[in-house]
Amino acid sequence: MRSIRWNTPSPPPSKQSSSNRNCNECHKKPQQVQCLHCSQPVCVECAQKHVNSAMNESESIVHLLNEKLDVLDRIAINTRQRIIAERDKIVQKADAERDRSFKLLAEMVEKEKQKLRDKNKELSELPLNERPTFIQSIKSDVQHLTDKDNTLFNISSKMPQIALTETASNSRNKFVPLFYSEEDYE
Predict the structure, then answer these.
(1) CB atoms within 10 A of CB 51
(2) Per-residue pLDDT, 173
(3) pTM of the entire structure?
(4) Higher per-residue confidence, 11 vs 149
(5) Over 50: is that where the pLDDT of 7 sits?
(6) What's the confidence (pLDDT) of residue 128?
(7) What are phi and psi of 39, to 5 degrees?
(8) d(Cα 83, Cα 2) in Å, to the nearest integer?
(9) Could you give the CA distance from residue 52 to residue 65 in angstroms, rounded to a whole number?
(10) For position 169, what pLDDT does the model report?
(11) Angle at 174 between CA 172 and CA 176, to 5 degrees
(12) SS (H, E, C) the chain
């Protein structure tokens, strides 16, 4: 009985030992190739199965990544809404602070006006011989009240800040924390 032999080129010496071995997958002994997926010597049929398996895994991961891109878009929309809500709280607090400051200003101005009224009353009750000294004292006391020098009241503020950082559960993927600074409000 005659056997049929495939005319295949002899493998290089470094590959001869692997071509004489069975396929690592199906354990048959056909012509061997190095699998692109796992670099093991396998038959052509098993190599194709490996490639198909790798392609299916790749398609699955691509689908998963695309789903996660959509999730990130939804998270971004939700986070923007939360930032707007925080901004609205800041605006409400700023409006309340403005109203409080206006009330405090009115009280402080009224206090200064009352001092001037008291000086006027005191002047009217003084004897004539004490008035020149008192008038000089009043001039000295009120010289800071001018339209040009508006420093009777000091005004200062600390700008609010919305801090945006990643949660601890995302510690593997570090992003730079974002902060709105005072310049962002100007």
Answers:
(1) 13
(2) 53
(3) 0.56
(4) 149
(5) no
(6) 93
(7) 65, 20
(8) 82
(9) 20
(10) 65
(11) 170
(12) CCCCCCCCCCCCHHHHHHHCCCCCCCCCCCCEEECCCCCCEEEHHHHHHHHHHHHHHHHHHHHHHHHHHHHHHHHHHHHHHHHHHHHHHHHHHHHHHHHHHHHHHHHHHHHHHHHHHHHHHHHHHCCHHHHHHHHHHHHHHHCCCCCCCCCCCCCCCCCCCCEECCCHHHCCCCCCCEECCHHHHC
pLDDT digits (tens, 9 = 90+) for 43-87: 888 888 888 988 999 999 999 999 999 999 999 999 999 999 999
Q: Are 134 and 123 in contact (CB under 8 A)?
A: yes
Return phi, psi of residue 11, to 5°.
Answer: -70, 155
Q: Name the packing angle between helices 131-142 and 44-125 (round to 10°).
A: 170
> Cα torsion for 110, 116, 122, 125, to the nearest 10°?
-100
Mean of all residue pLDDT scores within the chain: 81
Between 177 and 87, the more confident residue is 87
